[in-house]
């Protein structure tokens, strides 16, 4: 279809029988669309990362890593990776250049979940992360928008764009890359790459935050009370000292629950 400039308008390709429809989400580097397979009468999500002649080798390497890692992970609490395709920005096809990742469709949980549901989601998150770590992978970008629910109400860990392999053939390495999303990053990530860090505690830090917040009905719904976990944040300093537990809404945690938590 010609555009007003006389050039042919690029279209989305069909990926494994799925036609890309309307936009349903996205972030700084990608856009997520609903995709439908009319023959099978099913829908999926398609994450599209644009490619251009300016896309660097490092960026391509990271995208390939995301595809390889995510497609290898099979667990009830990991978002299913269905298929992938790459359209090169060489002008030889009528398709929009990009990396296309076809994924299981999921949605954000409702705000205001009760304590029972918060604990259910927490246990599912722990199960998913335990599996990922068992494969020698660390996620490094756990946050509410990367923890959607499927149609049955299962947590689905998604978006492995910042993941890393920390163990291969029984050899474990420390990491140095600074990445993640404020305010969820672990403190050691703030000081990378000057200081190397162990991989698994980076994800466990975020799990700890959700465990604490589940008593406040905050699990998977609200931000942490600090912008970044450093001494420059007065909120984080109050958290470390315990003073924040006397402030609203943290002081709503039941006393018996707090005693049990501190004993552990």
UniProtKB/TrEMBL annotation:
Residues 18-264 form the Protein kinase domain. The keyword Transferase applies. PROSITE patterns: PROTEIN_KINASE_ATP, PROTEIN_KINASE_DOM. ATP binds at residue 47. The keyword Kinase applies. Keywords: ATP-binding, Kinase, Nucleotide-binding, Serine/threonine-protein kinase, Transferase. It comes from the Eukaryota. GO terms for cellular component: cytoplasm; nucleus; site of double-strand break. It catalyses: L-seryl-[protein] + ATP = O-phospho-L-seryl-[protein] + ADP + H(+); L-threonyl-[protein] + ATP = O-phospho-L-threonyl-[protein] + ADP + H(+). One of its GO terms (biological process) is mitotic G2 DNA damage checkpoint signaling. Coiled coil: none annotated. One of its GO terms (molecular function) is protein serine/threonine kinase activity. Its EC number is 2.7.11.1. This is non-specific serine/threonine protein kinase. The lineage of its organism: Eukaryota, Fungi, Dikarya, Basidiomycota, Agaricomycotina.
């Amino acid at each position: 279809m010609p555009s007003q400039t006389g050039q042919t308008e690029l279209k989305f390709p069909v990926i494994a029988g799925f036609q890309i429809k309307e936009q349903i989400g996205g972030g700084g580097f990608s856009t997520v669309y609903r995709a439908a397979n009319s023959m099978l009468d099913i829908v999926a999500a398609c994450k599209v990362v644009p490619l251009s002649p300016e896309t660097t080798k490092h960026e391509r390497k990271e995208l390939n890593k995301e595809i390889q890692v995510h497609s290898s992970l099979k667990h009830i609490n990991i978002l299913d990776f269905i298929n992938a395709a790459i359209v090169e920005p060489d002008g030889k096809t009528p398709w929009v250049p990009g990396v296309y990742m076809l994924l299981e469709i999921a949605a954000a949980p409702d705000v205001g979940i009760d304590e029972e549901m918060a604990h259910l989601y927490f246990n599912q998150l722990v199960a998913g992360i335990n599996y990922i770590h068992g494969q020698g992978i660390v996620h490094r970008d756990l946050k509410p928008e990367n923890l959607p629910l499927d149609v049955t109400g299962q947590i689905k860990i998604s978006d492995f764009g910042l993941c890393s392999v920390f163990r291969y053939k029984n050899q474990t390495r420390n990491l140095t890359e600074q990445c993640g999303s404020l305010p969820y990053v672990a403190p050691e990530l703030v000081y990378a790459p000057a200081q190397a860090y162990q991989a698994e505690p980076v994800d466990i830090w975020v799990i700890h935050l959700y465990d604490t917040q589940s008593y406040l009905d905050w699990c998977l719904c609200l931000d942490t009370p600090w912008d970044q976990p450093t001494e420059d944040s007065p909120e984080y300093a109050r958290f470390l000292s315990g003073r924040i537990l006397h402030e609203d809404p943290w002081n709503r945690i039941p006393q018996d629950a707090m005693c049990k938590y501190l004993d552990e």
